[in-house]
Structures are given as C-alpha cells and as structure tokens.
Amino acid sequence: MIRALRPLVAALAFITIALPAAAQNEVTERFSKTSHLDQDGTFDLTNVYGTIVLTGGTGRDVTIEAVKRVQRPNANAARALLRMIDIQVVEGTNRIEVRTVVPRPRNFPGSVDYTVTLPADARVTVRTVSGNIRATNINGELLKSVSGDIEIIDGSADDVVTASTVSGNIAVRGLKGRTTQLTTVTGNVRVDDLQADRLAIRAVNGNIEYAGDLSRSGRYEFVTHSGDIRLMLSGTTGFEVQGNSLSGTVRSDFPITRRSAPGAEGGGGGVTPRGLRGSFGDASAMLVLRAFSGNISVSRR
Amino acid sequence: MSCERYDDLIDDYVDGTRAADRPGDARLAAFESHLAGCARCQALVADFTSIREAASALDEHVPPTRLWAQIAGALEEKPRAFSVWIPLAVAASLALVLAGSAWLALRQSPTGDAAQQVTATPDETSVPPAEAQYEQAIAGLQQLADERNAVLDPATRAVLQRNLAAIDRAIDESRAALADEPSSAVAQDSLLDALDTKVALLQDTVALAAEDVNQ
Fold first, then answer.
1. pLDDT tens-digit profile of A213-235?
2. Cβ contact (<8 Å) for B160 and A225?
3. How many angstroms separate the CA atoms of B60 and B148, rounded?
C-alpha cells in the first residue's frame, strides 16, 4: 500500500515544498485511544516528528491522545498528506506499542504530537527523531531523541532512567531513582534535586549543571569534553572527589582534604588549577568530574 | 582515573561476559585490555569473584516451621503488612549491603589508591589497544552508516553529521594532547570517551536508518 503511494507522495511533497511557505494551511486530525496496563506494564512509543508529553498517574488506564499535523500552502495537498500518517497501536500481554508510520521520502512534511497518560509504574520507552519529550512522574524510562530536548520531572524510578539526545538539551527535576544516565553530544544537561544512587552524565560540547544534594554512598560521574561542569551542592553530604580538566580551570567552594600521594595527576591532592582530588566531610558520596577544555566548579548552593 | 570508566562493566565481567563472545563490544574489549595491566581493577574483579563464589556456596536455609506459623499469624492480623517475599527481600538486601560495603571499602581504602598509583605506567600503555578496538568498531559502523543513511531525511542527516564532526574534533584534540603529553590520564580518558561516543552515535545512525528502511 505504502509502496504504491510513493510516487503520489513524492509528487505531493515536491509540489508542496516548491510552493512559497508564506501562505500555509494547517490541517490536523485527532487520534484517541484508551487502553489498560497492569502493574509494571510496558509502554513503547516511536515517533518521527512532533512533541511527546507523558504523565504518570495512579490509575491503570493508558490514554493516548495524538494530533496529526501537516502545514502546506495547498490545503488539498495537506489533507492528502495527512491521511498518509498512520498511528499504529499494538496491544500485547501487559504491553502497549505505539508507532507513527509516515511514508517515504522521510522529509515528510507532517508531524504527530502525542499526549499520553499512563500508570506511573509503567516501564516507558520513547524514541523519536525530531521533537521534544517531556515525561512527568514516570517510573522506568528510556527516552531517546536525535534533535529534540528531553525533560524529566518528578517520578520515583525503581529501574534505570536513561535519556539520550544528540543535539538537544536534557533537564531533570525532582526525580528519585536508583540509576540515572544522561547523554548528549552538543546539548546541555541540567539536573535539579535528583535523588539517585548512581548518576552518569556525558556530553561532548555541552555544559553540565547539577544542583542539589548528594546521596550517601551515591556515585556521580560528570564528563564533558569542551563544556563546563558546574556543581551546586548543599554540602549536607560529604564526598570524595576526583576532578580534572586538561586546559580548563578547576575550583571548589568546599575545603577538599588531600587523600592521595603527591605526584598523582591533578596535583596529588586538594585543589589545584587543573585538579581536584580528595574528600569533603565524611566522603560518603563519590564524585568523578572530567573535562578536557571546559571549566569545573563545585560551589555551595 | 581510567579505572572509573569501566566500573559498570565489572559485574558482567565477573559473571563471565567476555569480549571474545561479543565482537562488537569495543568497551568490553577495552576493559579487558585495561584489566591486564591494572592492579586496582584486578583486585576489584578478584574481590567480586570471591563474593560471588561465597554467595553461591551458601547453604539454603529453610526457616523452621514455627517461624512460618508466626508469620502466618502476623499476616492474618495485618493482611497487607507482610508478604511472602519479605525473607527473600531481606536476604537480597543483606547481600547488596555486603557487596556494596566491600565495593566502598575497596574504593576508599588506602590500598585501593595505592594499587591505582602502582599501576599508573601499565595503565597508560593500555590506551593504544583500546583505541585500536574502537577504531575497528568505528570503521565497520561508519561503512554501514554511509551505506544506509541516505534514507534519512536531510535535516536529520545534517544533525548527525554535525555532531559526528564535533566528536571528531574532540578525538583530534585528545590525540594532539596525548602527542604532547603521552602520560596524561585526562587526555587518554577524553580520547576514549570521544571514541565511545562516536561508536554510540554511529550505532544509533545505523539503527535509525534500518528502522526507516523497514517502514
């Protein structure tokens, strides 16, 4: 079916893209479905373009509201293109899979915005190419986007929470989880008031900011190549720290007690312009901070 | 510092996962090559292995009948307060606490630090083979990505290419720093971080293209 429509889609896409963008007609179509997940069910959503908003609640229902959207100068072409966006929902044993299917060519001029409410204990996997993801009060998560921003708010996760984007930013607020892993290449990462036993943040060009307290026995790793690392800590939990920047500066508002022998990279202990090595307080949390050319700062919140 | 990047692989390694069984896993291969020259990681692996062996050798303790009777009585009094999983959960928690304590004790002990310093020289020599493993993985993935990414839309392709270029710059800068200062642990780590990120992005590119083709 989709293969047979390809020439038509290609022609429509060519005609509509070639026309001036000034006089756009937006056509939309709503999609709605309610389903059910038992305890610890699985929800998977794969989208191409468009925003995704997920909210965890106390009920067992899963409500999927979606808006298909096409903006084109020619209203008839827009309507024809809109009909080619397909939302597929597959329900398995305590599992729901939602998938947006658009015909090729992949620069299809349409998008689907999703608003989903689901049980807070559901294990959620969301993948999208272009579009922001916002997840509130969700338990276990894997959120992945190429060029969108990812926002995680609240939630109490027993499972690993993973958010990964290529060029988007990641923001996490008020999450309670055992293990949280956040990665981006050129985006920035900001984490506020996280409660986690393990946190790993990696970026290449992006900045990393962490504000809040540390968990006792928690392990935190912040790595960026050319971005800055800024930690704003309450200081109620002690920590052991190993921090280094090859060409950036390193500073700490906290008195760092020297632990390792002289000669080690990073100044051998305490705080030097390039290194931070030692402990503060009871050293119950572990911090690893690494930047190549970015600056590192650990300050009081 | 190089040790920290492999901490999440040690559990799997102790459970018997090897790079030879997972040819595409460049990080695991890098870890094995690092492990060969790092006393700190060897000590960690030995410790976890001993914990694992000790745990598997434990006798199965069946609670006496009277204990179950007491629990059953308590369950009748407070139907939602207990579960038959509680003994298992307590045992699992104890095991986790013991394992966690061992981990922390080793991590925070002076001997752990000393081991890391003693192995500073062999640790540094582990970078070239790790880099070679990454390069091999990257070459294969790059070929697949080049073959398949034409199906992706131009905007997505541009984003991926821009970010791959950013990673390549990080790789080049790390290599230049290593050329100036071959013993720099930060430069070594930065190089391996960048190579690791490139592998991950190429894997995502190939997966994205494959998904598109399958639609």
1. 999 989 999 999 999 999 999 99
2. no
3. 54
Question: Closest chain B residue to A145 measured between Cα atoms?
Answer: B204
Q: Is residue B69 part of a domain?
A: no
Contact A104 B177 (CB under 8 A): no
Name which of A221, A226, A264 is nearest B4 (Cβ-Cβ): A221
ipTM above 0.90, yes or no: no
- Phi, then psi, of A150 in degrees rounded to 5: -125, 130
Inform me whether the C-beta atom of residue A160 falls under 8 Å from chain B C-beta atoms. no
Provide CB contacts within 8 A for B197, sequence distance 6+: A183, A185, A202, A204, B167, B170
Name the band, by pLDDT with cuts 50, 70 and 90, for residue B190.
very high
Q: Are A219 and A285 in contact (CB under 8 A)?
A: yes
- Of chain A, the percentage scoring pLDDT greater than 90 comes to 72
Q: B197–A202: do the CB atoms touch at under 8 Å?
A: yes
Residues B33 and B91 in one domain: no
In a domain, B169, yes or no: yes
Name the residue range of residue B28's domain.
4-56
Tens digit of each residue's pLDDT (9 = 90 or more) over A129-153: 999 999 999 887 789 999 999 999 9
For residue B62, being part of any structural domain is answered with no
- What is the number of structural domains in chain B? 2
Is there a contact between B115 and B43 (Cβ–Cβ < 8 Å)? yes
- Using the Cβ of B194 and the Cβ atoms of chain A, whether some distance falls under 8 Å is answered with yes
B156 with B106, same domain: the answer is yes
Q: Measure in Å the smallest separation between the Cα of A102 and chain B Cα atoms.
A: 8
Q: Are residues B129 and B208 in the same domain?
A: yes
Contacts of B154 in chain A (CB under 8 A): 107
- pTM, rounded to two decimals: 0.71
